Task: inverse folding
């Protein structure tokens, strides 16, 4: 069972990495979904679906090749890569979100936490 402090820490880490607006958007989606994690625990077998939903909610278009890459990559690496893409979006226009995500995953780029 996940403790309250663990849940709060996850939310804080997400907001720090992706911004409060994305967290608000995900909260809105979760509240609208009766089968959301808020009401239903996520079994270990659904971890792949969870990361796919997280990537999709962050605005990335999923294709079979990207899905396969996500399935074979740790959740931490994927979240770091999404944060790198978000940082680049804040600095200027990113022409190919999915391409930058793939490069960030392949190279295991970390977000610049000091920016």
Result:
């Amino acid at each position: 069972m996940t403790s309250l402090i663990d849940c709060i820490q996850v939310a804080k880490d997400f907001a720090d990495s992706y911004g409060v607006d994305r967290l608000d958007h995900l909260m809105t989606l979760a509240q609208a979904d009766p089968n959301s994690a808020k009401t239903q625990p996520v079994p270990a077998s659904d971890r792949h679906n969870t990361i796919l939903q997280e990537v999709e909610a962050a605005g990335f278009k999923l294709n079979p090749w990207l899905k396969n890459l996500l399935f074979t990559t740790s959740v931490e690496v994927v979240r770091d890569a999404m944060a790198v893409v978000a940082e680049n979006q804040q600095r200027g226009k990113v022409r190919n979100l999915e391409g930058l995500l793939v490069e960030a995953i392949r190279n295991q780029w970390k977000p610049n936490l000091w920016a």
Summary: Residues 36-42 have pLDDT under 50 and may be disordered. The helical segments are 4-18, 20-32, 47-57, 64-71, 75-91, 97-106. The first helix runs from residue 4 to 18. The two ends are 34 Å apart (CA to CA).
